[in-house]
Design a protein that fits this description.
- With about 240 residues, this protein is an alpha/beta fold.
- It has five helices and eight strands, in the order βαββαβαβαβαββ.
- The chain has an eight-stranded mixed sheet with strand order 3-2-1-4-5-6-7-8, with helices on both faces.
- A hairpin with a 3-residue loop joins β7 and β8.
- α1 packs across α5 and α3 packs parallel to α4.
- It is globular.
- About 45% of the residues are buried.
Length: about 240
C-alpha cells in the first residue's frame, strides 16, 4: 500500500472530488474532510471525515484521525471558503456572526490546518516532499466590495502563505493556487475542478523549491503566472 497521504480539507462536489480522484488514481491514500460527505467519495477517498470549518478548534481532530487511520499527510490541501455577500454601498452591512464564521473558515481554520500540517511535516523523513496548498483567488490583488467576509480571510492567509514560503524555503512548500481566465481575470464561479486537480498534482510532483508561493493556472493551459495582472477585470 502507498505511504503517500494527502488530506483534502473542503471535499466538495467540484474541486475536492476531482482532486481526490486524481490523487487516488495516482496511488495516494486520500483523506477527505467536508461538512457533507458525498456518496461519490466512497471510491474517491480512503477516509472521509465530517468537518465544520467555521470551528477552528475542530481542525486538530481531523489531522489526528487521518494520522491514526492512514498516516501523516505529506500534502495538505485547504479547499474551502465562507462567503456572506454584503451591500456594495456598505462593506460593514454583514451581521457580525456570519462575518466571524466566514473569517473562521477562510483564515483561522486554515491557520490551524497549516499549523497541524507543519507539525506533521516535522515527523516525516527528509526524503519525503511536504506541501501545503491553499485554494486562493485574486482578492489579494483586487478588492471585491460585495465580498468583504471572503476577502478579509483570503488576504490575511495570503500574507501567511508568503511568510511560510520565506520561513520554510528549502524544507516545505506552500502554494496559494488561483485559477485565472486566459486574460488573467479571476475564474470566479467558473472554477474548473479537473484543472484544479491537475494543477495541485503537478505542484506536488514538482521537485525543488524554485517556484514562488503564488501560483496561477488556466484551465486547459496549465500553470501560468499572472500575479497582479487581472487583464482589466472588474468585479461585478
Amino acid at each position: 500500500m502507498s505511504d503517500k497521504v494527502v488530506l483534502i480539507l473542503g471535499a466538495g462536489a467540484n474541486v475536492g472530488l476531482a482532486t481526490a480522484r486524481k490523487f487516488t488514481d495516482a496511488g495516494w491514500k486520500v483523506a477527505a474532510a467536508a461538512r457533507t460527505i458525498r456518496e461519490q467519495y466512497n471510491d474517491a477517498a480512503a477516509l472521509t471525515i465530517k468537518a465544520d470549518f467555521s470551528d477552528p478548534s475542530s481542525i486538530a481532530s481531523i489531522f489526528e484521525k487521518t494520522r491514526a487511520e492512514l498516516g501523516t499527510p505529506s500534502t495538505v490541501i485547504y479547499n474551502t471558503y465562507g462567503l456572506t455577500t454584503n451591500d456594495a454601498q456598505n462593506p460593514f452591512s454583514t451581521p457580525l456572526l456570519p462575518f466571524i464564521s466566514d473569517t473562521n473558515t477562510n483564515l483561522y481554520s486554515a491557520y490551524a490546518a497549516a499549523q497541524a500540517a507543519v507539525a506533521g511535516f516535522e515527523t516525516l523523513p527528509d526524503s519525503v516532499q511536504k506541501t501545503f496548498i491553499y485554494t486562493g483567488n485574486a482578492l489579494n490583488h483586487k478588492v471585491w466590495v460585495k465580498a468583504v467576509s471572503l476577502g478579509v480571510g483570503k488576504v490575511g492567509f495570503a500574507h501567511l502563505m508568503e511568510a511560510a514560503d520565506i520561513a520554510f524555503k528549502g524544507r516545505y512548500r506552500f502554494y496559494w493556487v488561483d485559477e485565472r481566465t486566459e486574460n488573467g481575470g479571476p475564474a470566479l464561479k467558473g472554477a474548473d475542478g479537473l484543472a484544479h486537480a491537475e494543477a495541485f498534482f503537478e505542484l506536488v510532483q514538482e521537485q525543488g523549491f524554485e517556484r514562488g508561493w503564488e501560483v496561477n493556472f488556466v484551465a486547459g493551459q496549465g500553470l501560468k503566472f499572472f500575479g497582479r495582472d487581472l487583464g482589466g477585470f472588474k468585479f461585478p
